[in-house]
Amino acid sequence: MKRQEISDQHVTELSGADASGYWWYAVRQAHVEGLLRSALSGRPMDYLDLGCGAGGVLAALTASMTPRQSLGLDGTQQAVDIAVTRGLPARYADFRAPLELPFAPNAVTCLDVLEHLEDPVLALKHLREASSADAVLVLTVPAMPSLFSTWDEVCGHFRRYTPGLLREHLAAGGWRSTRVRHAFSYCVPPAWWQRRVTRAVQEMEFPPVSPWMNRLLTWAGALERGLGSPLPFGTSLVALACPAKG
After folding, report:
1. Are 58 and 52 in contact, with CB atoms under 8 Å apart?
2. How far is Cα 147 from Cα 155, in angstroms, rounded to an integer?
3. What is the pLDDT of residues 193-244, one digit of tens each?
4. How far is the C-alpha of 76 from the C-alpha of 84, rounded, in Å?
5. Domain limits of the chain?
6. Which residues of 221-231 are buried (b: 16+ CB within 10 A; e: fewer)?
7. Beta-bridge partners for 90
8. Which pTM was predicted?
9. Please, is 108 exposed, middle or buried when counting C-beta atoms within 10 Å of its C-beta (0-12, 13-18, 19+)?
């Protein structure tokens, strides 16, 4: 099976999970907000969400961190339309072209986006050119190339990342990585079992779970994040970067 374009149904499923308090989104959100608060150190925030999807993160961070300005960009028109109906400042953008922004953001999130891009370095270069000199960038990407499977192809992924590859792409795009760590280490055993042993094709990116399981998995993510010294594996990478000098 080859990489597929993201379907309208898939966008709708993602927007529903994003807005529902689903454990994976809640854990990722905690990682992202914690890094942004620490990196900004109280500075006023001009915020861009690159690859905003249906606007879940854009809405959450706008509510919790009250930026002076905020904008979401996405390369899927249906996702942008959903975000706009939610009252969010979102618009379509082609990440292969220079970004035309109404302000120079000093806080940028790019969450589970790079793996969908054939040329992520080009997108990172355009982002660097559009951002302020003191910008902070928080990224997440799927990790562990050994887990790459038909599930990734169905989701439209070109790759899964190692820490080294993510640092390489950031550096080539004009960014200096200051932190790259794994997350969702507790998801590795079931992911490995499903993709490498049973080889089952998961029909939904985020299958429904019971309320108690949702709470348990959210708690596990909070525990992992609170430990401060995570295991050297996980199904995602969470990174912090700033513009490279020169």
Report:
1. yes
2. 13
3. 776 655 555 555 678 899 999 999 999 999 999 887 668 899 999 999 999 9
4. 13
5. 8-243
6. beebbeeeeee
7. 72
8. 0.90
9. buried
Per-residue pLDDT tens over the stretch 154-186: 889 999 999 999 999 999 999 999 999 999 999
Domain 8-243 has CATH 3.40.50.150: yes
- In sign, the C-alpha dihedral spanning 37, 42, 48, 52 is positive
The three-state (H, E, C) secondary structure of the chain, written as one string: CCCCCCCHHHHHHHHHHHHCCCHHHHHHHHHHHHHHHHHHCCCCCEEEEECCCCCHHHHHHHHHHCCCEEEEEECCHHHHHHHHHCCCCEEECCCCCCCCCCCCCCEEEEECCHHHCCCHHHHHHHHHHHCCCCCEEEEEEEECHHHCCHHHHHCCCCCCECHHHHHHHHHHCCEEEEEEEEECHHHHHHHHHHHHHHCCCCCCCCCCCCHHHHHHHHHHHHHHHHHCCCCCCCCEEEEEEEECCC
Tokens at residue 151, please? 């599930």
Place of tokens 């055993």: 189
